[in-house]
Amino acid sequence: MKLKIAIAAFGIAGLIGTAHAQDPQLARNLAATCANCHGTNG
Fold this sequence. Notes:
This protein is mainly α. Helices cover 74% and strands 0% of the residues. The protein is built from two helices and no strands.
């Protein structure tokens, strides 16, 4: 019984880690959107 609980806990912990992953290109894409109107110098 304890083994099943441990396996379930590790499985849930693994899913939580992937659910909170962020897009590494998010800041770059946001800056590109602003640069369309404001230019690259702000």
